[in-house]
Amino acid sequence: MNALPWTIYVSFAGALFTLWAGGRSARLARWAALLTAAAAWLITLVAASGFIPGPGLATIVNQAWIPAMGIRYHLAADGISLTLLILTGLAATAAVLFSWTVEERAGEFFALLLTLIGGVYGVFLSADSFTLFVFYEIAIVPKYFLIAIWGSTGREYGAMKLVLYSFAGSSLVLAGLLWTYAAAIGHGFTPSFALADLASAATHFSRPEQVGMFALVFFGFATLAGIFPLHTWAPTGHVAAPTAASMLLAGVVMKLGAYGCLRVAMPLFPVGFAVCQPLIGWLAIIGIIYAGGIALVQGDFKFVIGYSSVSHMGFVLLGLAAANAQAVSGAVLQMFSHGVIAGLLFAVVGRMVYERTHTRQLKELNRLPLHRLMPFAAATFVLAGLASMGMPGFSGFPAELTILVGTWHTAPVWAGFAAFGVLIAAAFTLRAIQVAFFGQTGTTPSAVSGPADSGSHPMQPISCPEKAGTVLLLGATVLVGLKPDLLLNWINSALQSPYFQAVLKGGPR
Asked: Whole-model pTM?
């Protein structure tokens, strides 16, 4: 556990080295990025091998940063943090593998990618709210440049919309934290941004104060998690982003918002959460069904995955809204599961299919027998689609089942609507599989007339880095699907902490 802060330091140092390496050759930059991402991931796996589940955060580093304001560089971890740290390392490694063909300004590309990853590691390790916020902002900034420079259709619009929504949400979070900090001092508490200290102080706040602070912090974070109706940045950003950025955006960046809701907003302001709980639950339900319905009628393959990502994040928010240990543990498991599955789906669509056919339009892909031209991509998408639908044997099944059962104990009507959302997910996933990969069968496998091209060209084979990234992500979803207790034991032990009990102890409401 003591080595976990090195995930941050290795990522930032690797970003600097990769930037330097890019001035020499794109190949050197790629290998530097891969070794950096893999090294940080290895650190999380080594920490996991010796992790003993228990309630409460285990402090790793706790040093004064800005003493006059009570701000400390406080890093700590529990089972929830460790689950998401492993996800981050896995997603980062796979994203580099699926970006192996990047040649244009490769050093800058991978440096931004690693900077984003370092910020994500920092968020998941922070036990001081101000430190968490700083890392949160570090993770947001690189997204703009990754999309605006290396993105595709509508990249400038998509990048600007994503960043504006992200910074708007960040502004709400910062306002809520500063209000909480000032109110704590007003009640006679020592100046501190530590999450535990703010939680203690918040017990003395009035009901209106708690409601106002909770609304600012929760909905600020929930914007990045794609809560309805603040979700519209997500599909646009996903579609415009390069493959690696799409994978990380869906895989880990959206999880920052959900993590902020769980780690900061809900435990700090349980009274405010109780007031807003019905609203959050219904917004999650609307997001699940609405985004799923939009995905069902999309003609752009990447938009299908973009809206499906919003729909599946709705299950995370629903689990948080249910506010019992079972539902919340399912929500955290869904964060891991969705991060792996969504990353794989974006890799297939953006890297394997689009880079070879030069189109994302389903009606054009339907004219190509991709199951024969690209059997590996077709098989991968079918398996990832089954995982996304929640089929047994994949991580999506225990995650969504745990959320639905937990939600039933809090609000059976929510569980009923969410179950309908599962059916919609099956419908848009099966439609995408059939239309994109099992279209016409008259084209020979040796050549394809690309919809965006004027002539025929041989179909490029799936590369070794792409196959390696696929094996990593598929292996993770199958492993967790068959053995969910590997993560649930960590998550459940973390939820036993007194820090979470004020918001979870109420059970059904």
From this structure: 0.93
